[in-house]
């Protein structure tokens, strides 16, 4: 979106608010019951915590000062995936795949607590179902229970609703005098971002259009200054 008539500090404030001050829901605690994969428990728990959760944070309270979990402030997921020594029907790179050889985020099952089923009628699930938590081989299994809380990105990046947020100044490119003919073609060729284009513009006394440089894509300008680096051009 565009901001007009404000100082750059306002744009930066909005950027910081988007990253750190917008509450979201993320997995906070993980209780691992079974993990026979090659990934260590602490590494697996870290990967689980970064799974984005699709839930309306306005319907969940912040955890109280006593840290006592209730259905008002905690969402519970269960996960249980075991790789079986059976052909899944899928072939990758010429290799037959086993059943459940990928432990994916889509296997997270929401366990409604209290009246959460009525508070969240649309259900709660990961934003993406294809996030790989671990690769398994026959006989390996992962089972855990995860508890989600409401938080801010300033406390931990897993609560940040955006991967990144940035702003930049929008260039205002003005051609003071018409650039025509060969000079227009050279100007277009100089710009690596193809900001300029050529139009055949007519003028009084010249009914036949003259190739003239125009600013076509100002948003693509990176301020590289290639168009003004050579003063002879």
Apparent shape: elongated
Secondary-structure element series: HEHEEEEEEHEEEHEEH
Mean pLDDT, rounded to whole units? Answer: 90
Query: What is the gyration radius calculated from CA atoms?
Result: 28 Å
SS content category: alpha+beta
How widely separated are the two ends?
35 Å
| Physical arrangement of strands within the biggest beta sheet | 1-10-3-7
Structural topology:
Layout: H1 8-20, E1 24-35, H2 41-49, E2 53-54, E3 75-82, E4 84-92, E5 95-99, E6 102-104, E7 109-111, H3 116-119, E8 125-126, E9 132-135, E10 141-151, H4 181-190, E11 196-203, E12 206-215, H5 226-229
Give a description of the structure.
The protein is of the alpha+beta class and 233 residues long. The chain starts with 7 loop residues before the first helix and ends with a helix. Helices cover 17% and strands 33% of the residues. The strands form 5 sheets. Strands 1-10-3-7 form a 4-stranded antiparallel β-sheet, with helices on one face. It has a two-stranded antiparallel sheet with strand order 2-8. It has 5 helices and 12 strands. The model has no long low-confidence stretch (mean pLDDT 90).
């Amino acid at each position: 979106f565009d901001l007009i008539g404000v100082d750059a500090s306002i744009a930066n404030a909005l950027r910081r608010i988007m990253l750190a001050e917008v509450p979201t829901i993320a997995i906070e605690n993980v209780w691992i019951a079974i993990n026979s994969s090659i990934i260590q428990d602490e590494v697996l728990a870290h990967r689980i915590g970064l799974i984005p959760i699709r839930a309306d944070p306005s319907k969940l309270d912040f955890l109280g000062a006593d840290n006592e979990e209730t259905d008002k402030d905690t969402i519970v997921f269960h996960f249980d995936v075991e790789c079986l020594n059976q052909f899944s029907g899928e072939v990758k790179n010429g290799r037959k795949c086993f059943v459940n050889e990928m432990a994916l985020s889509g296997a997270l099952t929401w366990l409604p607590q209290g009246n959460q089923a009525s508070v969240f009628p649309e259900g709660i699930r990961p934003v993406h179902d294809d996030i790989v938590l671990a690769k398994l081989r026959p006989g390996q299994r992962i089972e855990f229970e995860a508890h989600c809380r409401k938080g801010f990105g300033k406390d931990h990046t897993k609560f940040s609703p955006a991967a990144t947020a940035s702003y930049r100044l929008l260039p205002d490119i003005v051609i003071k005098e018409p650039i025509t003919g060969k000079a227009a073609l050279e100007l277009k060729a100089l710009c690596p971002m193809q900001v300029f284009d050529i139009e055949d513009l007519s003028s009084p006394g010249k009914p036949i259009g003259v190739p003239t440089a125009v600013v076509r894509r100002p948003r693509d300008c990176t301020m590289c200054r290639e168009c003004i680096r050579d003063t002879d051009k």
